[in-house]
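To assess whether the prediction recovers the assembly geometry, we first specified each molecular entity separately, as shown.
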Amino acid sequence: MLHELEVADAQATIAHVKAHYERPLMEIFES
Amino acid sequence: MKRLFPAPLVSAGLFTVWLLLHPRWGRGHLLLALLLGLGLPLMLQGLRPRRVRVRHPITILKLCLRVMADTTRSNLAVLRYLLRPGHRPHPAGFVEIPLQMRDPNALAVLAMIVCITPGTVPSGRKFPWTAPC
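The predicted structure of the complete assembly is given in tokenized form:
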């Protein structure tokens, strides 16, 4: 769960976190 | 030996720092420095993170640049809210992020990224990265 100061589009936020943070972190730590 | 000294560098560091904090070294301070240097790493070894092998340096660099860019953008957004408090086109709210990664170090890094980004904070009980920022 993430609290944002401004939620314009929740799906866009999810996509942003997954693409820009989760994917590289998985590549760094889990691959 | 590893059982007695789970983190030799931390032990040496604690011992040294304790002695440096005190201008006069008596037997008591030496004993305390020894106790801290040996005892703290033993007591806290359960909290030590798993060993990390640094891989994909280009990905790390890209991630750092991305975090810097996002943090700068968030800072500007917060500044805009402060300068124009009445003008907020969208309300604040919670977004549930379904994460697939499970590595504790990766989750800790994500929690830190979220914490340093102004206007966002991790929360909830479903994820292990719920420490308050």
